[in-house]
Specification:
Length: 252
């Protein structure tokens, strides 16, 4: 992906690159329909800074987010700089605890798509019944619904329930997906969304055909043999080219 390094806001080149990639990510999610009005969040750590994060401006649709409009905040959700947009602190309450507590939580997304919410609201959760869900078997945490995620004390239970997994399904609510890079987070979410879509459709047809633990082990072994440090980067760059052809204003 050709990344414009000349910042439109006062920041380092590393932060500007992170801003452009995050803005592209918002546009990709919007293009794919994986967002809910002005709500939900994708956040990333600011490279080279211990307690700084980027989040979407509260009030903009995800298809309107640009590199410059992203808000820089500290670990408590306070704005750093003079960005005119407000921050939806209700959303960052859960993101902040993951960013602070888990090394692999560099990039985090939380959505309310109908299919992921349907799986989160079903008794069995994500079932090992399709190609995509088999990637996640045994590697998903679950957290019981406690209402709107705005209370800091819930953070302790969120961390306990996610463990070292990169996917946490908030029961009756929606998924949280994280990655050590924005590319990894994107592709993990892509596969989770697909897994949930297929599960919802399969369930409408009757009892899903479960995959055995033995086959799951082979499936995940072969998956791990294919993984690299840049997992998801080719996918992310391909979708970035797609949204760039539609509207390149996210770069500004």
């Amino acid at each position: 992906m050709a990344t414009q390094l000349k910042p439109r806001v006062q920041c380092s080149e590393a932060e500007w690159k992170a801003r452009q990639e995050l803005a592209a990510c918002y546009r990709i999610f919007a293009h794919l329909g994986w967002y809910e009005s002005i709500y939900n969040h994708i956040t990333v750590r600011v490279p080279g800074e211990d307690d700084a994060f980027l989040i979407n401006p509260y009030g903009l649709l995800w298809e309107e987010v640009t590199a410059s409009s992203l808000i820089k905040i500290d670990g408590e959700g306070n704005k750093v700089g003079d960005n005119p947009y407000p921050v939806n602190l209700a959303g960052f309450t859960q993101h902040s605890v993951f960013h602070k507590s888990l090394d692999h939580a560099h990039a985090i997304v939380h959505t309310h798509t109908p299919d992921t919410m349907a799986v989160c609201s079903s008794k069995g959760g994500l079932r090992q019944s399709n190609f995509y869900s088999c990637f996640f078997a045994g590697e998903v945490g679950y957290h019981d619904f406690e209402g709107v995620t705005v209370r800091s004390e819930e953070g302790v239970r969120l961390i306990e329930n996610v463990g070292q997994n990169k996917v946490l399904l908030l029961r009756n609510h929606g998924p949280v997906v994280m990655g050590s890079t924005i590319y990894e987070m994107f592709l993990l979410y892509y596969m989770l969304q697909r897994a949930c879509e297929v599960q919802v459709k399969t369930s409408a047809m009757g009892d899903p055909l479960e995959v055995s633990d033995e086959v799951i082990a082979v499936h995940q072994r072969d998956r791990d043999n294919q993984l690299t440090d840049e997992f998801g980067k080719l996918d992310f760059e391909a979708w970035t080219r797609k949204i760039d052809r539609i509207d390149s204003s996210w770069r500004d």
